[in-house]
Amino acid sequence: MKDLIKDAIEQYHQNTCIKFKIRTNEPDYVNIFAGRGCYSTSIGKKKYGGRQDVSLGLGCGFIGTVVHELGHAIGLSHEHSRSDRDLHITVYKNNIDPNRIGQFNITDPKIEFKTTRYNCESIMHYGEYAFSIKPQVLKSMEAKDGKTKLLEPYDKAGLTNTDIQMVKDLYDCK
User: Active-site residue numbers?
Assistant: First the structure.
């Protein structure tokens, strides 16, 4: 897992101005640990700072998953939650586990940070069977173009050009 984390961090280092480093005594930091599941406790720095946990437990051993969770840690939201998502994908709410429907809430455009075109291939986009009540049978969403297959982050190699641009815009990278 350590090598995957290093490789994921390297994608951010090579393509953006984000620089992760080993913590010494910084009050605000990302704590990566082997928890239960793959998640980040918040999207971006918490209001009052402090520790932000990123869990990379069993089942998280994919470069795309690690890049995705680090994306949350630095402030990237799910692509499929963008306010313009219904122009690009169809979400089948009846096919989604009711306990996970919140993963498909649309972001309020008044508070949304969006500087790039919608990208179904974003590392921050879930796959077409994400949280389906019948995985591989009932799709939770699909692309409206009829040809793009929505892949899970674990099936992706990492950051896309639009992901990179979004990070650069979010952090005013030069």
Answer: 69
